[in-house]
Amino acid sequence: MQFGIIGLGRFGQCWAKLLLPFGNVIAHDAFLKSSPVEGVRLAALEEAAAADIIFLTIPISSFQECCHKIAAYVSPSSLLVDVCSVKEFPLQIMGELFPQEQPIMGTHPLFGADSIEKSAGAAGHKIVLCTIPQEAKAHRMIEIFQHIGLEIITLSAEEHDKQSASMQALAHFIGRAPMLAASPGIVSTPSFQLLQNMVHSIKEDSEELFWDMHRYNPYTRSVREKFLKELMILHHTLNRLSL
User: Who's near 219: CB < 8 A, 6+ residues apart?
Assistant: First the structure.
């Protein structure tokens, strides 16, 4: 089994390490001159895109352009695996640019490079599957997910994005508030420390991920607006109670 990874950033490196025990891993990254992962060989785009299973570990903002570039090299029998935090958009793009019979697995790993490093592996983490082709390569990929200890959750792309807007995207929106990054004072409470922990965790993710999850998930705006409306209602209620 040969795995091709398009995009060898921190998350691409994370997947490269997870996949190495299960086959040969090659990767393409236009910004790298040498592989940062031992055992992973850098390759031309056409070679990485011709692998048996291809992981697209690239930002959502670059997804459409990447799919355009690799479409000519991907074998009709190759399994495409996307790992975007939004699901409707990348699945739509792949459906438009690849043949109808192309095996496509839409996934959202609910972890990042930092959380994998802290837990010394993927065991106990979750991954959402939104499309599961019936081809043998897809079944093999599911076996690999299970072998490395991932808990598999199946959702439609629409349901995933709706839930993600209310959970992941909203949490990142709140965690980006500058005042939450303030240093704890002498009267810091456990509740404030929990907020600080959330802010620290969110800041480990890139700003690009933050902007992309809000830009490409069609449900985030209504969730943000509802949250802000509820905050204003609470704010005005407290003002009326003030002495």
Answer: 161, 162, 164, 165, 166
